[in-house]
Each structure stands twice: as C-alpha cells, then as structure tokens.
Amino acid sequence: MNVVLIRSNPVKPCPRTEKMAESLIRRGYGVTVIAWDRDSDYPPKEEKLELGDISCRIIRIGLKGQFAGGIRKNLRSLLKFQRYIYQWLKKHKNEYDTVYAIDLDTAYTAQKAANRFHKVFVYDIADYYSNGHGYTGILMKLSNQVENRVINKAFATVICTEERKEEIKKTHPKRLYIIHNTPNLSAEPYIPEKHERVRFAYIGVFGNTRFLPELTEYIAKRKDCELHIGGFGANMEAYFEKMAAEHDNIVYYGRTPYTKTIEIERESDILPIIYDPSLLNHVYAAPNKFYEALALGKPMIMAKGTGMSSIVEKYYLGETMEYNIAGLEKAVNNLISKRNQWDEIGSREQEIYKTRYSWVEMEKRIDELYSEIIKELKQ
After folding, report:
1. pLDDT at 187
2. Is the pLDDT of residue 134 over 90?
3. I need a labelling partner for 252 at 20 to 30 A (CA). Which of 2, 65, 205, 240 fits?
4. pTM of this prediction?
5. Which helix (H) or strand (E) segment is 75 a member of?
6. According to CATH, what is the number of the domain 2-181+358-378?
7. Does the structure show a pLDDT above 70 at 190?
8. How many degrees, rounded to 5, is the angle at CA 86 between CA 81 and CA 88?
C-alpha cells in the first residue's frame, strides 16, 4: 500500500508527520509527504525526507506565509496550497491508495480528491481548527461545520488525546483512533553533567501565546539559570537571536532538526511548556514537549489548566503555574528548591511514559488502523 501524508508546514521538522512516515515505511508501506514551506516562494521540488537510517519522498511547495500568522496573513497562499494538493493527487492518482491529511488546512481538499479518485481518506486532527486559530462568531461556526463534515465522512479519524473527544462530541466518526504526540525514544535513565546554572530548554514552534518572551526575559535576569531556545514562527527569530547576543545565559539555536532537539533537551534540567490557558485549544493541548519530558525524565513547568497539566499535578512531575511572571517565578523557585527530588521525578515520568504513552503502544494503534484500511482496499 502507498500512502500520501499531507501537512501544512515544511516538515523541518514536524515530529507527528515524521514519526508516522517512519512507522509506515518500516512496515513496508510506500510513503510520500506533501508539505507547505512558508519561508519563501518556489515551485514544488522533490527531496528526501531523512528519517534516521531510512528516508522517503517529500514534495515541498514554497508559498510565502507566516507560521502561526492566522488566516488573514496566509489566505492567498493557503488557497494556492489547496490547488496544488488537488492537482498533485489528481496527476498521481495511480501511485497511492490512502490519503492521510493532518488538520483542516489540508483535509478539506484532500478528502475531495480522495473521494473523486476512490482512495481511502484518513483525517488526523492535531488541532481542532476553530479552537487552534481562535475563531469566534460566524467564522467559528463555518469552520466547525466544514471540519465536522470532514470527520463524519472520513474512513477514520485520529486525535491526539482522550480528552479531545470532547472537542468533536458533535461529530460521528466512523472509526476513531487516539495516537499521542509521543516521541519514539527508549526511556533510558540519563544523568547530565553537573551544570553551573540550572538549564532550561525550549525547542519548538514560537508563538505569542506560549510565554516565550516572558520566559526569556525572566531567565536573562537570573545568574543561576540559563535558557536554551530554538525553533521558528511568529516572526520571533530575530528577538531570540538578539537576546542571545546580549545575555550569556541565553543560547539560541534557530530552526533545529528533531534529533538535535532531543539532544538539547536530554542535556537540560527543566522543560518549560507554558501555554495560555485562556485559549480553548490549549485546554486540550497535547504538547510534544510533555511527552519528551516524560521519555527523557525531565521535570517540567506548565500553566495551570492547560492540556496535561492535571497529570503533572497528580503525579508531581514538576510545577504548574499561573500564567504570569509571578507564577513563573514561584514555579521556578519551587522546582529548584526541590532539586534533590529531580531523579525521583524523572523515574516516575519514565514509568508513566513506558506504561501509557510509549511510541511502541502508539504503533499498535497504527497497525490496527492500517489493518482496517487494507480490509477496505481488498473489498
């Protein structure tokens, strides 16, 4: 079976897409990835997506836009991307059996093409669209109608936590699978070198609702801490580069491959995962960083009332905080004062990862999904 994975980012990196592609390839499926690169305009180009010791074909199309920039700043490029998705699926209709689209900005058009060319369509909801984009009023109503229709018509729907069933409670998916945003890592104990300063690390997507400038400015003022930060989005790259140039305890990496991300996190002490709890999408969030912290055994700091913060509180896997500077300062001081408990926290995290969230467990669910697809294709 041949599968087309479609994602509205450049996959440089995109852990959810890359892990799915790697798992499918190792099971003998052919995989092609279609990706939207918003950094610059350029015609579609075929490249290799390196996945450890294997690779697959990726087709990137450059359409200038802004990651996390919203519909107004990306509408023209988004529409062009839709046209490209449809045209590619039409032109190559004899080369694939299944279309696996992630989020609504790929799924609506991909489903139309899959239905027309008699392909199996799977919809993966990393973020329920209206919640993820903060829509209200008529825009939220229209977005929900379109997305709910995609869910109801899809052969199968994938969500990333059990809690996200609440988001789609008005839909009727034919088949529903829960595949967490967990890394494909072995939960092996790791003791980093003793750092002169407590080392915080955030490597991921930049956004205005992730408390990143506030975190950076707070850490910059502390002589006993340092922040290692990397990623892209929301036009924040120049800001972090400037902060790193001005402060010796801020280290900026820019856009970072996923293997490098894990290496930086592995050598850190604390992972901050601080999302604005006033946004509904963050209430249901399943951050990659949460699962990475579990697998690596790293204490974390999360905002109260955001996705997975209840797990942090229940098992004491770090600190939860109010979404303000005073809350951050209290959480940092509390966690540093409990430094002698970090090994115990790490062991607890890794046990939770192994028993509840490991990628080995997620791959069993992928196998179940694709077994159903194979049955459908044989009919």
Report:
1. 57
2. no
3. 65
4. 0.90
5. helix 70-91
6. 3.40.50.2000
7. no
8. 90
